[in-house]
Write a structure and sequence with these properties.
Helix content is 39%, strand content 19%. The radius of gyration is 26 Å and the shape is elongated. The chain has a 6-stranded mixed sheet, sandwiched between helices. It is built from 5 helices and 8 strands, in the order H-E-E-E-E-H-E-H-E-H-E-E-H. It is of the alpha/beta class.
């Protein structure tokens, strides 16, 4: 009997070590040798991060009334659409305004732009429905902005950081909830703007 007791006393530390080291060793094995199905994939972002982001820093775009648009100092949301802005465009601009307002106290850190890709924007209509929206006619003064955006689609929304870098794109049809989540995380993590 003393032999069994001494053997069980020696077995306890080994079992305790396996209890603590075992899960770690299993996880490491699965990560490195378990194939792609065990490795973490992707990210939690709903928008598309732009690698090697183009910059709008230093761009000053003249606007109607003698004012200018500057893409530094604040976060900027750039909505790209036809200047005629039909019902879908109006709905998207309304949703973009709602996303900005849902950010609460961080709302003042964001400015919104409408970049027209064609047609003539009705600035009076835009000003009435969206007083804080900055309208840029892509055919007249915003060609540099459209060129910097590169590949874009109608109703895409781009995020420009306070340093002027175009860093994220939300494709047309991205839900307000998903856009709000990404922007909330971005503003929470950012100390600039």
């Amino acid at each position: 009997m003393p032999e069994i007791r001494s053997r069980s006393k020696r077995l306890i530390p080994v079992l305790l070590a396996l209890l603590f080291v075992g899960p770690f060793a299993t996880a490491m094995y699965m990560y490195y040798y378990g194939g792609d199905s065990w490795r973490p994939q992707g990210s939690v972002a709903h928008g598309i991060l732009i690698g090697n982001p183009p910059s709008l820093a230093g761009e000053t775009i003249p606007l109607a009334g003698g004012t200018t648009a500057v893409f530094t100092g604040k976060w900027s949301l750039l909505y790209v659409g036809n200047g005629n802005c039909a019902d879908d465009c109006q709905r998207a601009l309304y949703q973009l305004r709602q996303v900005r307002q849902a950010l609460g106290r961080d709302m003042s850190r964001i400015q919104r732009y409408f970049i027209s890709t064609g047609g003539t924007p009705d600035t009076e209509l835009m000003r009435g429905a969206h007083p804080d929206l900055i309208v840029i006619d892509g055919n007249v003064t915003g060609s540099k902005v459209l060129a910097a955006l590169g590949g874009y689609g109608e109703a895409d929304v781009f995020v420009v950081d306070p340093l002027g870098n175009i860093m994220m794109r939300f494709p047309a049809g991205t839900s307000m909830k998903d856009m709000h989540k990404d922007l909330s995380l971005l503003l929470k993590a950012s100390t600039i703007g």
